[in-house]
């Protein structure tokens, strides 16, 4: 059993991965259980695995996929911001806030003006982290979970 820190600060068991099977045609309903590690169509398994390791080493101290920690929950991140914005933010969020990027300033203010540190990650490493986040977001979306904070 894996334990994680909840928003309330209590240790709670992490929910088991969601099992889903996608329909082979858009109008066809999903059926039957699938691997709990099934990735969304088009996801690169190697990038997701690399992103998992990078996320745990660089992001997990302040972020979770589905819960607010120090910073916002990251589920659905690439649906809210383009990869070019995410890359610039990860590399130097302070610069984006200082230059008045509207969304950057909003996030900065929303999280008690807590500055996200700059990371010396390559564009490819950031894309791998986003692929991992999206693979986990997909698993949550398939379960019908809601209430994720926005970045």
Strand order of the largest sheet: 1-2
Gap between N and C termini: 29 Å
Task: Determine the mean pLDDT.
Answer: 76
What is the assigned CATH homologous superfamily?
Answer: Cytochrome c-like domain
Quaternary state, please?
A: single chain
How would you classify the helix and strand content by structural class?
mainly alpha
User: What sequence of helices (H) and strands (E) makes up the elements?
Assistant: EEHHHHH
CATH hierarchy: architecture: Orthogonal Bundle
Find the CATH topology: Cytochrome Bc1 Complex, Chain D, domain 2
Basic shape? globular
H/I helix tally: 5
Helix percentage: 40-55%
Low-confidence segments? 1-36, 145-150
User: How large is the share of residues in beta strands?
Assistant: under 5%
Main sheet summary: 2 strands, antiparallel
Summarize the SSE layout with pairings:
Elements: E1 3-5, E2 11-13, H1 45-58, H2 77-80, H3 83-98, H4 102-110, H5 123-143
Antiparallel strand pairs: 1-2
Helix pairs in contact: 1-5, 3-4, 3-5
Protein described:
Keywords: Electron transport, Heme, Iron, Metal-binding, Transport. The protein has 151 residues and is mainly α. Helix content is 42%, strand content 4%. The chain has a two-stranded antiparallel sheet with strand order 1-2. The protein is globular, with a radius of gyration of 16 Å. The protein starts with a strand and ends in an 8-residue tail after the last helix. Mean pLDDT is 76; it is low at 1-36 and 145-150.
């Amino acid at each position: 059993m894996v334990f994680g820190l909840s928003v309330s600060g209590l240790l709670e068991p992490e929910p088991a991965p969601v099992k889903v099977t996608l329909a082979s045609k858009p109008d066809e309903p999903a059926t039957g259980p699938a691997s709990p590690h099934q990735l969304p169509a088009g996801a690169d398994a190697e990038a997701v695995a690399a992103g998992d390791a990078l996320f745990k080493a660089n992001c997990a101290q302040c972020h979770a996929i589905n819960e607010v920690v120090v910073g916002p929950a990251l589920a659905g991140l690439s649906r809210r911001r383009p990869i070019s914005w995410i890359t610039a933010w990860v590399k130097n969020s302070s610069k984006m806030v200082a230059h008045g990027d509207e969304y950057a300033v909003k996030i900065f203010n929303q999280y008690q003006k807590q500055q996200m540190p700059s990371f010396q990650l390559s564009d490819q490493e950031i894309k791998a982290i986003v692929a991992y986040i999206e693979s986990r977001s997909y698993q949550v979306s398939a379960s019908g979970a809601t209430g994720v904070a926005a970045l």
